[in-house]
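User: Quick sanity check before I run a bigger batch. Here is a single chain. Can you write out its predicted 3D structure?
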Amino acid sequence: MQIRRIHHIAVISTDYERSKAFYIGILGFTLKSEVFRAERDSWMGDLALNGEYILELFSFPNPPARPTGPEAVGLRHLAFEVDDVEGSIAELTAKGVRCEEVRIDPHTGRRMAFFFDPDGLPLEVYEA
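Assistant: Done. Predicted structure follows.
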């Protein structure tokens, strides 16, 4: 098997419209397509970032909560590469997004910081 690249990342939200507004309005994704799947009472939206990556955003009735913080089993977090971590965190904070303080990755010496989507899912900005 030869993996060429990551095709998509899937996120389940508790409030589809709220999460869609966050990923589009705050993080700058664009909506490529969306469909309501009546048989599952579920929305599915395909979101693009700079025309390159796809984030599948789902809603399901009463999804279980994430059991703990980033150290729960499963996908730990999604990281976005940025040129200016401090500026990105300042912009997110100004938009009401919960953010942690900027810190230095001890392995690379690069700046990084975590922030959270409307459901508290951990996201990260990482210095290019």
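Strands lie at 8-13, 30-37, 42-49, 53-59, 78-82, 103-104, 111-116, 122-127.

User: Great, the batch can go ahead then.
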